[in-house]
Design brief:
- The protein is mostly helical.
- 69% of the residues lie in helices and 0% in strands.
- It is globular.
- The relative contact order is 0.11.
């Protein structure tokens, strides 16, 4: 069990920092707690430090696309990166498609679609099952645009 000091003088950020410090190498598991506390920058930093469940990241992107599109964009990109690197439990084509679509929706809201598409193309070039599925999705989208 992890014990961290709490009290009226401790901020959610302080508590999160102590929890992360108590579990070195497992920073990604604190992503959801940081997100729930509204610590969006910290949540993304945690998701990018160690593997984080891509489905959790995709749900976060889905839930906050309209209200926190920059967070949703980075959560979606982190999901795609972990998928492309082979992480995630029983990741399917529809899981990859959803992460892609949520990421692209956030990119459209922000106005950086082409930049994000280029980042996704780089992830799709990885030699993994997730990378290959992502590459297939990009090919389908390109055919649909033509």
């Amino acid at each position: 069990m992890i014990h961290v000091p709490v009290g009226p003088d401790r901020t959610p950020s302080d508590i999160l920092r102590d929890l992360v410090a108590a579990t070195p190498g497992e920073e990604g598991k604190w992503f959801a707690a940081a997100k729930s506390a509204g610590l969006y920058k910290e949540a993304i930093a945690l998701a990018n430090r160690t593997p984080c469940d891509p489905k959790t990241l995709t749900r976060a992107a889905r839930d906050l696309t309209e209200t926190e599109p920059r967070f949703a964009l980075e959560a979606g990109l982190a999901a795609l990166r972990w998928i492309a690197e082979g992480y995630g439990y029983e990741i399917t084509g529809p899981d990859v498609r959803e992460a892609h679509d949520r990421t692209m929706r956030a990119a459209e809201i922000i106005g950086c679609r082409e930049n994000v598409l280029n980042r996704i193309r780089q992830l799709a070039a990885k030699n993994s099952d997730g990378g290959r599925i992502l590459a297939a999705i990009l090919r389908q989208d390109q055919r649909g645009m033509g």
